[in-house]
Amino acid sequence: MKSVFLSLFFLSFIGVFSAHAGYEVGDVVGEFDLLNVDGKNVSLSDYDQEKGLIVVFTCNHCPYAKLYEERIIELHKTYASQGYPVVAINPNDPEKVPEDSYGNMKKRAKSKDYPFPYLFDEAQDVAKNFGATRTPHVFLLERTTVQYKVAYIGAIDNNPQSAESADKFYVSDAIGELANNQPVKVTETKAVGCTIKWK
Amino acid sequence: MWKKHILPRVAIIGLLIMAFGAAEGAIPVMKFDEFQSKVLQRESDTLYVINFWATWCKPCIEELPYFEELGPNYKGKKIKVILVSLDFKTNLEDKVIPFVEKKEIKSDVILLDDLDYNSWINKVSADWSGAIPATLFLNPEKGISTFREGEFDRESLNKQISQYL
After folding, report:
1. Could you give the CA distance from residue B155 to residue B117 in angstroms, rounded to a whole number?
2. Which domains does chain B have, with CATH numbers?
3. Quick check: B65 and B104 in contact, CB under 8 A?
4. How far is B45 from chain A (nearest CA, A)?
């Protein structure tokens, strides 16, 4: 009996340590409310007419975020009109990376003419709730009647160096499937990126 | 006439072979399958410390000296450090080689040239999201396979290593 309890005790630890922190595909997304580069706040509940959201954790400094910047803009240009706009969130601590400060976010958004909000997750709570680990890191959300659920987590495509050389377009494919009321085939992918700079 | 020219030609060809041979020998470029068979699945009683980094990754660069110290610090122990660069292959000549030379990196360096990340990241570790730096501690004979995403400082790296040696 004792050994059973001991095993349960250790199993509970394994559970704690192996538990995937943050949202998994299918999870309901909680409200967030963050400061945008235009000085106003943007919250998830502001998006009450959309079919879904392309939430991208990204930043100014990371070379991989830079490589994907144009592709993130293109995603918004292609899919916002179809009901799937981009919301970009910078989760990095500017104390660690000054290039990712709110002031520099404003500059970046302006110089690149971001057509989507670029939000500052200063407390890093939103990144933690989502379970974001790197930049860029995409969470594609689909809206059910009253709430948003996670439909896909991962990369935009399978070639960071050049969009032309990619031959798997994970986010576009997932949106296409959602739009056709089909299950998303590839719900999770992994990709190299910069670690999020936690406080 | 013929004899007069052959020596310089041989010398030039020899130099070319040396130059290219040396460059290739210094930093092998591998696709994931080759990396898997030559590094991850190598049978050995040595502790492999496999660090994934890139010249563009600041926290990676900051922790590299601690990995470089492992060789001298654990002299006589069965430990081998392999620094796996995830830089693009197109940056081998202009970024990776100059970096390795400038920093006088002594550990083995490999450039893992496989951009279809989702096809192989889980084969390194299911615990890896893909963010770098990331490090795998591997000794199949002793059943050691520990993965960590994120940077080390000197103390935490040595603490980790001392568990295995």
Report:
1. 31
2. 27-162 (3.40.30.10)
3. no
4. 28
* Contact list, A155 vs chain B (CB under 8 Å): 117-118, 130
Flag if A190 and B122 touch (Cβ within 8 Å): yes
Q: Do B115 and A195 touch (CB under 8 A)?
A: no
CB A153 within 8 A of CB A23: yes
What is the token pair recorded at B165?
A: 């040696």
**Tokens, residue B106:** 């002594």
- Rounded to the nearest angstrom, the minimum Cα separation between A63 and chain B is 7
Q: Do A158 and B115 touch (CB under 8 A)?
A: yes
DSSP letter at B73 equals H
- pLDDT tens readout for residues B97-151: 999 999 999 999 999 999 999 999 999 999 999 999 999 999 988 999 999 999 9
Sequence spans of domains, chain A:
25-195
Q: Using CA of residue B52, residue B56, residue B57, residue B62, what is the dihedral sign?
A: positive
- Are the beta carbons of A192 and B128 separated by less than 8 Å? no
- Burial (CB count <10 Å: 0-12, 13-18, 19+), residue A163: middle
Cβ count near B41 (within 10 Å): 10
CATH topology of domain A25-195: Glutaredoxin (3.40.30)
Cβ separation B117–A168 shorter than 8 A = no
- Using a CB–CB cut-off of 8 Å, the residues of B that contact A are 54, 56-59, 86, 88, 90, 115-119, 121-122, 128-133, 149-151
Please report the ipTM that was assigned to this predicted complex: 0.86
First to last CA, chain A: 44
